[in-house]
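help with this record:
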Amino acid sequence: MRIRLGIIFSLMSLVANAQWIEESSDASIEFRSETYANSNSVNQHFINSLFFDLEVDDEDIQQNLNRIRANAKLGVVSMHSLNIKLDQTAFGLKISDHRYASLRADGELFSLALQGNSAFENDTIGLGNTAYQVQSFQEIALNYEFAQSSGPLNLSLSYLNAGTGEFGRVKSGSFYTAPLGSELWIDLDAEFRSSDSIKRQVLPSNGHGVSVGFRKDWKKLSKEHDLKAFVSVQNFGLIRWTSSTSSRKIDRQYRFTPSDYNIASSESEVIRLVLQDTLNAYAPEKANTHSQLSPFRIDLGMSHRAESGHAVWQNKRSFGLQYIDLPGYVPRFWYREYFAIGSQVEAFASTGFGGFGSLFLGLGLQMEVEHFRISGNLSNIAGLALPNHTAGLGASIQLTYLF
């Protein structure tokens, strides 16, 4: 009995781009948008097929079998915000939308999802070290900026509207396929939660929360050098999902034989029946409230600039670390080098590693024209240029009007 689990990952695909963003001390209106995707175990063509074509063919599967790592990860993050700053060292308002999808799993589970369990005949694969999270929430934040001699300090208090949420964690587990598929053994200790499936409109409300944040800038760390730094923590808080949130806890072993189901059915139908009947019989849904940390984000960065005497190369660079509290995400290092294109336009090249993928290369532009500041960034051009050989694709844009 061959079972393919590829459908499990159809909603998964994350990498966020850490970047240096100068915070304005002037009254301003600013729009920011970021969307990124990455994986350390499938290429960009595979991710595009999942999200745009909604299917993956056998050629995609064969190309990615050798890419799968022992600790497989993939994901997507998207954030859009409108920031309004009233005047210098005063109040500001931010309205934003956040969407995350991330997955961490054992590499053998990834292989099972791609090629079915026939490749693991008379073998046991591990299901532990698996976690996924698909979540959206909207944020309304009130900011206040304190003027300090070293650089501004910005504090924020936010209200969070919980949209949709799907969460899962497998503490331990195994999957055994007997010779010729004569039977399957599944041993599972896991927990799953899901927000109200009825409330799936554009901006549903399935819970509420609060979070805090801060950003501290140092404008001059050295008297001899133009050295700046910042540290930022955003969305550190708690979301309480409503009583209509469903949850399941599983801690037992299950055995299946071909006679349990009509094996003439499609592979996806068989696995759907196995999982559905197992959960309903042994782990029925329970509706209750649930509190969980919001996916907070930490950024650290420094920039340095020295006299270059060159028309293009500015002898200016920035670097830092980023962390997002999501399954499988590891601290991500980034580095940028800047180049001048005229008096008002600046280009930059970036590289780094970590997050949900590996090494990345990016290009971007930023410019200032009268009252406008504009910044755009392609965070991983390799995924765009070589989708069959690497993964990672993303873009960001920042538009600021200064009063």
